[in-house]
Structure formats: structure tokens, C-alpha cells
Design a protein that fits this description.
The protein has 17 helices and 30 strands. The protein is of the alpha+beta class. Helix 4 packs parallel to helix 9, helix 4 packs parallel to helix 10 and helix 7 packs across helix 8. The longest helix is centred in the first third of the chain and has 16 residues.
């Protein structure tokens, strides 16, 4: 289903009871983000929020994609799997043998439909150009500041258009933009991104690079800008497929080499000059739940700003999960399962990205397993597939279990797991935002093969798991003073895994402690111990996993302890230790700055508390930041700064 524009989507949300209008004044600096954080962490993602009184001429739309229902509404489907089914059907039709004339004729209607989804450049001006600012000034837009240690206000939902200077191929991506002045922002594209490659080509040619930023319009545009498409696939072709209607584009006014959606609410035109000095951009509270720290990025010079007559400024916040971006990620997980299956990994049957893994950190794949080593085959294929190259922890299961029932999945995986044989490590490109890597954008990966093993894959020297494992966590707290919390609850669910909160005090402390714990008689049969910061309550499973996944470089931070079994003579047992604690120069020889977690400041929390009853949101929701204040290391973006 295509929406006429963003306003039509807002109207649909309101009719469905999915939108709250907030008429009380709310400051775009920190307050909008704090309110949105509270609402988006409600069960099911809360409601979309339209802030109508921002102190600017334009309202602000937040959390528009922040639930399963709203994500489906944005893409015009009843279920996200409906899109995957459409894509799979299209792939099958195109790939099937066309032996007879009738077979070929059957394909014509689909090809005609496919052609109707291709983007089209129309003549004249679009609705997005109804108003042209005489003097472009981005500070007249209600650009939000999300978190207290952010470098400034950031455009957080920009649909950024660039073009390859040689092939003229368009790319549409989404990269945050820090506002530095009326006509200057940063352009935060990472080196792996297509727009960064376009910029490199302009640099070789010593030419200014035209860029245009669209805000608003059909909600399919913002989603398509985030989608992990191959370089040669136009994002507006995906948007056309999703909305079942072509995207109409118009040429920019000051940068006519770039086209933008005619129905966008705002268009910000400009250029990036390869001869400019880079600008020190950041910090920014990012989707990992940690600040991404400042670095040098290109300058974006604004040459024009246009907008509709009654535009709405769309924005999002990212931070400690869950947030709105979790639902955008869920859409990608469902939609791109079919292409992965049809083109690269035919044995994959399902995929899941738990919210605690913040996308790349933790991916679960289910496969149809038919032979020994198939888990490793899938591992290598996935780590070589587009943005899956950034994945840190990959868990592979087979069709013997549902991968979305995490309790059943964990039992099944650990039942099939030999820690000494079935955990594989590699090294490669990582997300630039991954702070755990010793080197920026390059670090360790881990695959846990939890599939049922064939005869060839079984290690005959490993003792079978005991029927029951009992550990006295209170006794450990008394015996090991560095341990501040112990989570033994998984053992009661037949999941032989522990989570331990440790206060590190010396080099090699986690490895030393792991050797002690894994050598205890009562830990025989425990297959994995996850170590987290002493500031984290190990019994808070969701928080522990979020912190653990962010802080771990699996290749560097893993140790396996093997010993003879005390139950089965001649057999061995193994326990994997994984260090998900903060790393420092003093204790870990870690040379990079370590970021702090993202927490709202006390003044903002109090300001929102004071005006809550005027917001018309409903019963009071306490700030999620209160839960995490004690987990901070100082109050700056850099931990312990």
C-alpha cells in the first residue's frame, strides 16, 4: 500500500489508535528524546508521538515505526513475513524453467508489474518544493538533541541521496548528521558504506559531491534507506515493491544532478567538498546503547532547504534497547530472509536477531541440516554476505527447535554443544560502532554450532552431561570476593550456563577466575560462563546479555577450560569462559577509549516528570535511565573520563 505522503501515514496511525498528539510545549533539546525513550520501552513499543508544540514552526513525529503493528502499517502489510513471501514468490517465478511459450507468457504480467515499481523522474517541482527558504538555515528545523553528552543536535532520520560520478548509479542511505551551523552539518558515513565509496570517487576527480537529504514522505522511503541491499539495487525500486507503486522523484533545485521523492516533507540540498578539512563529529548516543565517540567526518554544506506547506519533521532516537530501531531491524530480518535463502544459503529456514544483540552483535540462524560440517558452511557463507560481515556472535540451530522461543533454543543448543569442538572463532570487518574491538572496525567473531551432531562430528572423549547441576551462588559470593553477583537461574531450566558479575582488579583476572570456577567439582557439566561488569546485576538477564554482547571480542576474550571428568573415567569435560567486561589499558592492554552507556541527565528527567500530566500520554512512566545510572563510569561520553 502506498501512502500519498507522510501526513497520510500520520492520519492512518491516528485512525488505528497508534498515535498520541502532544500539545504541551516540549523542548527538542533532550526532552523529546526522554519522553520517547519512556514510551518506546513500553510493552509492544508504545505509541507514535506527534509533538505539536516544539518552539519551532514544525511539529516532530517520533516512534512512528516503533511497534510490529506500525512497522506493518508503514510497509502496507498485515505481517512482515508477507513481504518475504512476496519476494520468495518473485524469485521462484524468475528462476523457474521457461520451456514453453505459455511459461513465458505467464511471466509477462509479473514483469509488467515489476516495471511499474521502478522509480520515475517527473517534470517540474514536487510538493517537497512548495516552499523554498530564502536563506537556507537548518537551525530553523526542530532538530533534536537526544542525549546529554551528544555533540549537539543530530538529524536522525535522514534519507541521504548520492550518485556515483562514473556510473551515475544512485544510492539512498541513512547516516546521522550533526548540526554545526545554519548551513553546515557533518556527514557520518562509515568507510564500508556506498556513499563513502561515492565520495572517494569524487575525491579522485577533485570534484564537489552533490548530496540531497529527504525527510518524511512515504514511510517506505526511510525503511528502504536502511535496508541491506546490494550496491547495484536502487533503494527506490525496493520502496516501489513495498508500496506496490513507483516512487516519483523530482530534480533538486540547487543540486539538479540529484533527484528526491516528490512527496518528501523536507529536502536539504548541498555538497561535500573533497578539499575541505574534515570536521570533529560526535559524540552520539548510538543504537548499541553506548556513545559512539568523536571522530573526523566530511562536512556537508547546505545550498538549499525546501519543504511542503505543512510539513512534519520526522526523527528517531537510538539508545539502550529496546527502541524504535529494533522494529526496523525486525523488518529487515523478515524481509531479507528470502533473498538470503534463495541466492546464497539454501539450507537456511529462519533467522532471528534478538533485541539485546542490537542487530549485528547476535544473530540466530536455523538451517535444514543434512551433512557433517554444514553449520560451518553456513557460518562462512553468512559472514561473507553483505552487512552480515559485521556479525559478531552467530548461533546456528537446526529444525529440531523454534529459534524464537529462547528458552527452548538455549536448551537445545547447549544439549548439542561441546565447548571444546563446536565454538568457532574468526576475525574480520566489524561495525565501526563496535567499541570492543582492539582496532577500529576489525575484530573477532564467534559461531556457536548448536545443531544436532552427526556421527562424524561427535567427540567420543567428552563425558555426557549430568542430569542436574546445582551451584550455591551465595557460597561463591563468600568464597570469591571479586564476584559481586551470580545468575544460576538458567541451570534450573536445564541450560548449563552461568552469568557472573566480576570486579576486575588485576591483569588476567577473568581467565584466572574462570580456571578456578571451571575446576570446581560442582561446575562439571557447566558448558559456558559469561562474565559481566560488577556494576551489572547478573540476575537481570536482558541487561546482562546486552552489556555482554557489546563488550565482547570473542576471539580475544574467550578461554576454554578442559579437565578430566570426575563422573566418567577416561572422559573429559570443557567449559568456555567469555569475558564481557569493560576493557582498560591498565588491566587489559586495551588502547582505545571505552565509551559510556547512554543515560539521561537528572535535570531532563525531572523536567519531564514535572510536565508528565500535561502530555496526555497516560499513566506516569518512570525514566528508563534510572535503572542504569549506577552502571555508568563517570558522567562523560568516555568511561571513567
Amino acid at each position: 500500500m502506498a501512502y500519498k505522503d507522510q501526513q497520510a501515514f500520520i492520519d492512518a496511525l491516528e485512525q488505528a489508535g497508534e498515535l498520541i498528539r502532544i500539545k504541551t510545549y516540549v523542548d527538542p533539546k533532550l526532552e523529546i528524546a526522554e519522553i520517547t525513550d519512556r514510551v518506546s520501552k513500553e510493552p509492544g513499543g508504545g505509541k507514535a508521538l506527534l509533538f505539536e508544540n516544539t518552539g519551532y514552526d514544525f511539529p516532530v513525529l517520533m516512534n512512528a515505526y516503533g511497534s510490529d503493528k506500525r512497522m506493518c502499517m508503514a510497509l502496507g502489510v498485515n505481517h512482515l513475513d508477507d513481504v518475504a513471501a512476496d519476494i520468495e514468490g518473485l524469485f521462484k517465478l524468475l528462476a523457474s524453467p521457461k520451456e514453453s511459450i505459455l511459461d513465458k507468457l505467464r511471466l509477462l504480467p509479473k514483469l509488467g508489474q515489476f516495471a511499474s515499481w521502478m522509480p520515475k523522474v517527473i517534470k517540474g517541482r514536487g510538493a517537497c518544493q512548495e516552499v523554498v527558504m530564502e536563506q537556507p538555515d537548518i537551525t530553523k528545523l526542530p532538530v533534536i538533541t537526544c542525549w546529554p553528552k551528544d555533540g549537539g543536535p543530530f538529524v536522525t532520520l535522514p534519507v541521504i541521496h548520492t550518485r556515483d560520478p562514473l556510473t551515475k548509479t544512485r544510492n539512498v542511505g541513512m547516516y546521522r548528521m550533526q548540526v554545526f551551523g545554519p548551513t553546515l552539518t557533518g556527514m557520518h558515513w562509515h568507510k564500508h558504506k556506498v556513499s563513502a565509496r561515492h565520495f572517494a570517487e569524487y575525491k579522485k576527480l577533485n570534484k564537489r559531491m552533490p548530496v540531497a537529504v529527504a525527510l518524511g514522505g512515504d514511510p517506505a522511503y526511510a525503511y528502504s534507506a536502511t535496508a541491506p541491499l546490494p550496491d547495484n539495487v536502487d533503494e527506490y525500486m525496493l520502496a516501489g515493491f513495498l508500496r506496490k507503486k513507483k516512487v516519483e522523484l523530482v530534480k533538486c533545485i540547487s543540486q539538479p544532478d540529484i533527484e528526491v521523492p516528490a512527496d518528501a516533507d523536507f529536502v536539504i540540498e548541498g555538497y561535500v567538498d573533497p578539499n575541505d578539512e574534515l570536521i570533529w563529529e560526535g559524540p552520539f548516543g548510538d543504537h548499541t546503547g553506548y556513545y559512539s565517540l568523536p571522530d573526523w567526518y566530511p562536512r556537508f554544506h547546505i545550498t538549499a532547504i525546501t519543504h511542503k506547506k505543512n510539513p512534519v519533521y520526522p526523527a528517531t532516537i537510538v539508545g539502550i534497547p529496546p527502541q524504535e530501531d529494533a522494529w526496523l531491524g525486525k523488518a529487515t530480518e523478515r524481509i531479507f530472509l528470502a533473498p538470503i535463502k534463495m541466492t546464497m544459503i539454501p539450507e537456511i529456514t529462519d533467522m532471528d536477531m534478538p533485541v539485546e544483540g542490537v542487530f549485528h552483535n547476535l544473530v540466530i540462524a536455523q538451517i535444514q541440516k543434512d551433512y557433517a560440517g554444514q553449520g560451518q558452511k553456513v557460518m562462512n557463507a553468512m559472514w561473507g554476505a553483505g552487512q552480515m560481515m559485521f556479525n559478531k556472535i552467530l548461533v546456528i540451530a537446526d529444525k529440531g527447535v523454534s529459534i524464537t522461543n529462547y528458552g527452548e533454543l538455549a536448551r537445545y543448543v547447549f544439549r548439542n554443544l561441546d565447548p571444546s569442538m563446536d565454538v568457532y572463532f574468526s576475525q574480520g570487518p566489524m561495525d565501526v560502532l563496535d567499541h570492543s574491538c582492539s582496532k577500529l572496525g576489525f575484530g573477532g567473531k564467534m559461531c556457536i554450532d548448536g545443531t544436532k551432531k552427526t556421527t562424524e562430528e561427535i567427540n567420543d572423549h567428552v563425558a555426557p552431561s549430568p542430569d542436574k547441576i546445582t551451584i550455591d551462588g551465595a557460597q561463591w559470593l563468600e568464597t570469591f570476593k571479586e564476584i559481586k553477583s551470580v545468575n544460576t537461574s538458567l541451570l534450573a531450566q536445564d541450560i548449563p550456563c552461568l552469568i557472573v558479575g566480576i570486579k576486575k582488579e588485576r591483569r588476567g583476572h577473568v581467565r584466572e577466575l574462570h580456571a578456578q570456577l571451571a575446576g570446581l567439582p560442582e561446575t562439571e557439566g557447566v558448558k559456558m560462563i559469561l562474565y559481566v561488569e560488577h556494576t551489572v546485576n547478573a540476575n537481570d538477564l536482558a541487561t546482562s546479555l546486552w552489556r555482554f554482547c557489546n563488550n565482547l571480542d570473542p576471539r580475544r576474550d574467550s578461554v576454554v577450560h578442559e579437565r578430566p571428568s570426575t563422573r566418567v573415567p577416561g572422559k573429559t569435560v570443557a567449559c568456555m569462559g567469555l569475558d564481557g567486561t569493560l576493557k582498560t589499558k591498565e588491566l587489559d592492554d586495551f588502547q582505545r577509549d571505552w565509551p559510556n552507556i547512554i543515560v539521561a541527565d537528572e535535570a531532563t528527567i525531572k523536567a519531564v516528570d514535572a510536565k508528565w500530566d500535561q502530555l496526555n500520554i497516560g499513566p506516569f512512566i518512570a525514566s528508563p535511565s534510572l535503572k542504569y545510572k549506577d552502571q555508568q563510569y563517570g558522567l562523560e561520553a568516555v568511561a571513567n573520563a
